[in-house]
Amino acid sequence: MNFEPFILTLKLATLTTCLLFMVGIPLAYWLAYSKYRIKYVVEALVSMPLVLPPTVLGFYLLLAFSPENQLGKFLDQYFDLRLVFTFHGLVLASVIYSLPFMVQPLRSGFSGIPNAWLDAAKTMGKSSWAILFRILLPNMKNALITAGVLTFAHTIGEFGVVLMVGGNIPEETRVISVAIYNEVEGMNYAMANQYSLLLIAFSFTVLLVTYLINHRKNHMLSYD
Predict the structure, then answer these.
(1) Cβ-contact 164, 62 below 8 angstroms
(2) Distance from the Cα of residue 53 to its chain's centroid
(3) Is 4 within 8 Å of 170 (Cβ atoms)?
(4) Architecture of the domain whose range is 4-223
(5) CB 29 within 8 A of CB 136
(6) What is the pTM of this model?
(7) Cβ distance 105 to 173 under 8 Å?
(8) Domain segments of the chain as ranges
(9) Residue 217's pLDDT is what?
(10) One-letter-per-residue 3-state SS of the chain
(11) 107 near 32, Cβ under 8 Å?
(12) CA 16 to mean position of chain CA atoms
């Protein structure tokens, strides 16, 4: 078995999850506490990948990233950055497609923090950054774990978006879901089965470990 698609998928999922933590935490914080009505528009935009077919999102990203369009041409000319059929394009597409899987659990985590804690911290003169990193995030560890695992697992299972934007280039954009599709197209069902079993075993292990960690944390909190 060629493990290159699986390794590439893990690389993509890890990088996407790390980037989305940086984007998702401030965005979820703003959605949870902002009083501006525009946040409902932003929340709807963030959640659109949940209801849009992956091929629709992938199609428009493909058009946007193409060197024949203004955005793609601008990135190519001024930054020498090509996003169509490249790993960089896969990362950006995955960040957009997996955004709600990061933001929604984090937003729920922020909303679950008692307002009295925030009021007390503000009364003590704590800055917004101090409140975020010393009060909010340490008390929503389950939400952080859930957001990270959902994002990672969702990126592992992506197909339509990555195929549209990245294509099927060996060692460059052929992630494991695309590799399975490629083997099925070639009627190599034995290899497709091996890839599928590997993906099932890995996904089950990740989810099982996550549920055990969350259960242990909840049990310790109940005991305290």
Answers:
(1) yes
(2) 16
(3) yes
(4) Orthogonal Bundle (1.10)
(5) yes
(6) 0.89
(7) no
(8) 4-223
(9) 63
(10) CCCHHHHHHHHHHHHHHHHHHHHHHHHHHHHHHCCCCHHHHHHHHHHHHHCCCHHHHHHHHHHHHCCCCHHHHHHHHHHCCCCCCCHHHHHHHHHHHHHHHHHHHHHHHHHCCCHHHHHHHHHCCCCHHHHHHHHHHHHCHHHHHHHHHHHHHHHHCCCHHHHHHHCCCCCCCCCHHHHHHHHHHCCCHHHHHHHHHHHHHHHHHHHHHHHHHHHHHHHHHHHC
(11) yes
(12) 6
Reported residue count of the chain is 224
Tokens matching residue 132: 């975020």
Low-confidence residues of the chain, pLDDT below 70?
Answer: 217-224
Q: How far is CA 183 from the centre of its chain?
A: 26
Instruction: Report the amino acid identity of residue 2.
Output: N
| Identity of the amino acid at 158 | E
CB under 8 Å to 19, separation ≥6 — which residues? 91, 95
Q: How far is 78 from 183, CA to CA, in rounded Å?
A: 38
* Per-residue tokens: 100: 């709600």
Structure tokens, 124: 């003590």
Quick one: what percent of the chain has pLDDT higher than 70?
Answer: 96
How confident is the model at residue 218, as a pLDDT?
A: 63
